[in-house]
Amino acid sequence: MGPYDSSISPAAGSSNSSSSACSSSTKPPPPDQMDHLLAGAGYKVRSNDLNQVAERLQHLETVMVKSSPVDISELVNDAVYYNPTDLVSWVDSLLTELNTNVTVPEPVPVNTDLSDLHQFPSDMNVYGSNHAPEMHGEFSQQAVTPLEEDISIRLVHVLMTCAEAVQRGDLPLASLLIDDLQALLGRVNSGCGIGKVGSFFVDALSQRVVNSPQNGVVQVELSAYENEILYHHYYEACPYLKFAHFTANQAILEAFDGQDCVHVIDFNLMQGLQWPALIQALALRPGGQPLLRLTGIGPPSNDGRDSLREIGLKLAELARSVNVRFAFRGVAASRLDDVKPWMLQVSPKEAVAVNSIMQLHKLLGPGGPHGPPIDLVLDWIRDLNPRILMVVEQESNHNQPEFLDRFTESLYYYSTMFDSLDACTAQPEKSLSELYIQREICNVVCCEGSARVERHEPLVRWRGRLTSAGFAPLHLGSNAFKQARMLLTLFSAEGYSVEENEGCLTLGWHSRSLIAASAWQSIPKPSPATTGG
Amino acid sequence: MVHIHDDDVQSDGFCINDHLDLLIEVLKRLDGRSLGAAACVCRQWCAIARNDSLWEHLCFRHVSPQPVGVRPVVSALGGYRRLYMVCVRPVLSRLKRRRIGSESEVVRRVWSQHEVELSLSLFCVEYYERLLVGGGRVAGDSPASSLKFLCMPVNV
Fold first, then answer.
1. Could you give the C-alpha distances from A76 to A73, A99, A108, A348, B78, in angstroms and in order?
2. How many helices (H) and strands (E) does chain B have?
3. Which H or E run includes A266?
4. What residues have CB less than 8 Å from A14, skipping those under 6 apart?
5. Which of A143, A324, A383, B14 has the most C-beta neighbours closer than 10 Å?
6. What does pTM read for this prediction?
7. What is the predicted pLDDT for the residue at A100?
């Protein structure tokens, strides 16, 4: 599914009105009859005229191709002002003039705003016959053969136009486009593919437009219990979390080789689903079992249960069954930058592993008085001197400053993720996973400032960030790779792929990487006492 | 049921039920499905077939090299019979289905170390999930939710 492979894209930056030098030959039709997609490009065409325009343009192409070069060159001789934004009359007049073979007025240069389209191909220019065929091709597809695929393409186009209207602050147009989108959604299959993920994006956009386009909305907080349920079903429906857990465990196991006292710090304990496998692997370790300490960080419970402690008890019970000495400590913090190193009680004799599964990106938001949260946290992680820092993050750039860029990137990313989720048939796992992903989408699209926590960044940026924070990469070995590949063969869908990328592993759906796992070790800070000569 | 053949038994002089060590040797060589069928023959066979060491043999007889120290862990997590039903059998059949074209007889296939480790890890996660849900003792033979994906039909 390729959302962006059409030659016509909505324009950026142009308003609805034409250049002021031209006079409009018809009165502007009532707004609800104009085609909004083309309105975004600066053209005024009524939706019910689209068919007619398509046919006329087709005819125009035939006539121009058949005309002799002499006739066409006469087109450039005289200049008469016409209004090209009024497509219907423009095409009609061109046709009549070519047919009668009189010296034909040249269409006036289009509003120069349209040439500011830095992001779109230059053949968007109105002049000349090279434009007409492409335009007519698009129209004839849409007007003459309304296949579902074309509706899907149109859906994506309108989504992009709407997002870009939101970025510009053009709320009336955005609202109209949202109505269009709702209508389009009614015509596609909303059970799968672009219909389903499109509906989530339309919801998110409409929330933003209705509530607070500039400052973003604040997402409704779920209770800890609800969060756990969604997370658990997401864990079961698709392999991303399992891949993260198993790869991290393998790397941590290898880093703990030969160590007798080991301490794992988990940045997001949730239900502790990652740790049973590590406990079992340590129980079967050839060199003997170490003493395992686990410190789990999680949000404070808002419903009276001490969920951290409960999970700790369950993990301790499991560890006791397999005869591994185990100690658990829970640290309740609503944000990672609220955690102070002394809370973790790391002892200097033990080997430390820090495990962050999709948590670090939440620290990329606006900084407090002490500086960006990510730098603070990476700093104290480095102070702990961990043998391994395990980082698993979404492989996408949802933290770009421009709204439209974020929107585009997330549309592509989550479409791919929903494609992969289609393979899962178990309910309620599938629906609840979709709800889990929908919350992420909402956060990326609707929220701004400190409310926007889903600030995903791709692996290359994390590499740069971690390297400059004083960490050196650890290569994930072939064991991790083989295990990940084997894990994927157990899943019923055939589209998943694991790739190795400079010592990091990425899991993707077909050719698109969706989640990346990397391991790091801290470079000890140079000691303040200088070595003398 | 046995009484009908009493005369035959006495005249032939051999009944497998009198030689349980032989019975166990035979059962050790069966595949999972046959072992399950054997458990349905009579109460005595059922009691013998439920012996976890038979299932241990079934799980790891084709593992090279033999895993060490696994027994206490597996016993603690629910036993070899459960390990077979919940993890080993679906994993083997799923891996077999992926090997289209090569010899794929499930029984003769040699496990690799990675496959053993992965199965044990999945088994442990499954045990933990039952702990989360039920608290305390394990109940029933059906796997907990995180292994549901193993039981789903392959979308070939």
1. 6, 16, 10, 83, 87
2. 10, 0
3. strand A261-266
4. A41, A42, A111, A113, A114, A116
5. A324
6. 0.75
7. 54
According to the per-residue pLDDT averaged within each range, which of A7-16, A119-128, A437-446 is highest?
A437-446
Three-class SS of residue A508? strand
Give the DSSP letter of residue A498: E
Q: Where are the alpha helices (DSSP H) in A263-369?
A: 275-283, 307-321
Tens digit of each residue's pLDDT (9 = 90 or more) over A279-297: 999 999 888 899 999 999 9
B129 touches chain A (CB under 8 A): yes
- Please write the tens of the pLDDT for every residue from B47-80: 888 888 888 888 887 777 777 788 888 888 888 8
Q: Answer yes or no: do B149 and A486 touch at CB < 8 A.
A: no
A493 and B125 in contact by Cβ < 8 A? no
Which residues of A have a CB under 8 Å from any CB of B? 232, 235-236, 239, 246, 249, 271-273, 276-277, 279-281, 283-284, 286, 314-315, 317-318, 321-323, 423-426, 429, 479, 482-483, 486-487, 489-494
Candidates B68, B115, B127; nearest CB to A486: B115
The residue of A249, A284, A318 whose CB has the most chain B CBs within 10 angstroms, and thus the best one to mutate to test that interface, is: A284
CB of A493 within 8 A of CB of A426? no
Predicted local distance difference test score (pLDDT) of residue A75: 60
Q: In the A/B pair of chains, how many CB contacts fall below 8 A?
A: 95
- In angstroms, rounded to a whole number, what is the distance separating the alpha carbons of residues A222 and A199? 21
Q: Do A276 and B124 touch (CB under 8 A)?
A: yes
